[in-house]
Amino acid sequence: QSALTQPASVSGSPGQSITISCTGTSSDVDAFENVSWYQKHPGKAPKLMIYAVTKRPSGISNRFSGSKSGNTASLTISGLQVEDEADYFCYSYAGSGVFGGGTKVTVL
Amino acid sequence: EVQLVESGGGLVKQGGSLRLSCAASGFLFSDYSMSWVRQAPGRGLEWVSSISSGGSSIDYADSLKGRFTISRDNAQNSLYLQVSSLRAEDTAVYYCAREKSYYDILTGHQTYYFDHWGQGILLTVSS
Q1: Which of A58, B41, B52, B113 is most deeply packed, by most CB within 10 A?
Q2: What would the pLDDT profile of A50-66 be if each residue is shown by its tens digit?
Q3: Could B45 and A46 be called an inter-chain contact, meaning their C-beta atoms sit closer than 8 Å?
Q4: Contact across the interface for B109 and A34, Cβ inside 8 Å
């Protein structure tokens, strides 16, 4: 199973856009069609933000978007808001599941 | 409303065993694959195990095979995780999650993701 690498932290000011990357070490293309993203606030359950690389579940703000290029998937948060400050994890499944190490988003 | 409620956590000594439970409601439990995911203190999320809707297909993280056993009782709308030979590094909040699949007809790819999560239950392993 591919390991997924995320930057430890990303920061931005309110209203700005930030992008979190999730890079795989495997050449398994199927793994990268499987990427989903989760937001986690301390003490709370994870929350699905993006699935199937680009799809947004019902109820998730369109400020959140997903994309993929080669073996790197990305989550972009536009119009950054204070409540977006959280940890974000990418996840992929290709035979077994794996999460990225997580990225702490700080709103300055 | 989909609800997942974990129970059975607590303080256990190293080498001990415990069974975690997840009670599901608000959806047809027998239609969905389910998973366990954990988060150790100060660490990231770690996928633990998944079980198919009927229980015939099971996967585990390689590092946990042999010590953890996932099971389900569709009649009781419940998911379980039997954890044994516990180590300090198993200390974590354990979440149960409902797994969904999405088939993209344009690419032919089947994807899997977690659309609902429980609030988690803390398992602490003491030395």
Answers
A1: B113
A2: 999 999 999 999 999 99
A3: yes
A4: yes
Residue A90 tokens, joined: 């990418």
Signed CA dihedral, A35, B44, A46, B57: sign only? positive
| A8 in Cβ contact with A20 (< 8 Å) | no
Residue of A nearest to B4 (CA): A45
Strands (E), B1-127: 3-7, 10-13, 18-25, 33-39, 45-51, 58-60, 68-73, 78-83, 92-104, 109-117, 121-126
Residues of chain B positioned with their CB less than 8 A from the CB of A46: 37, 45, 95, 97, 114, 117
Chain A closest-CA separation from residue B101 CA (Å): 9
Q: What is the mean pLDDT of each run of 10 residues along chain B (127 residues)?
A: 97 96 98 97 96 95 91 98 96 97 87 96 96
